[in-house]
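Researcher: Structure prediction, please.
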Amino acid sequence: MTETKSFHIGDVLSIAPGKLVSPDHIAGVYKILEWMSGEDGLMTHQLPRVSRECEPYLIQQFPELTSEVVPSEFPNGWDDVAAFLATLYPKYGEFVQVAPIPEGDHTAIDPISEIKMMRPDLPIIGVEI
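Model: Predicted structure follows.
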């Protein structure tokens, strides 16, 4: 049996369909992607790629969420996000169990190497702490 971990429904929706509605904001995105990919310490520039790797598995785990339409705007900020998420709790619960992606379906790339691949025109200076 595959190990799972509990995540807020807003964390899942922040990856698939990809609109930031996590109650933990971007920290929720980091947490779910790091869990699913098995890679700790993802950096901001890596999130889009790892999201693309994880999204099909979230859709596979929660196909019913594909019918949910996340509003394109939340005029009242977090209050509107929280109200939207509350409409989903009766159907899905506030938290869902998420399995990681299969081993081998995530490509671990050194963050400095990846940023150099993304922007070869920029000088990148690594600082070791």
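Model: Residues 47-61 form the longest helix (15 residues).
Researcher: Thanks, that helps.
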